[in-house]
Amino acid sequence: MKKLLLVTILLMIGACGMTKKDLGLEKKTPDASGAVSKEELILPPNYNLRPVVPMEQAAK
User: Using CA atoms, how far apart are residues 14 and 25, in angstroms rounded to an integer?
Assistant: First the structure.
């Protein structure tokens, strides 16, 4: 009889939402308001310039 009472009490405590949260049994969903947006990538102003070729390779 004591075991039945103990099991009943444990089930009642486990049904409580705060108990599940405190014990880590509740699934945590991500919060969309905490998301960080990234800035867009910006190309440097001289992006269209060609790379410098050393004089030794330019003569060939």
Answer: 9
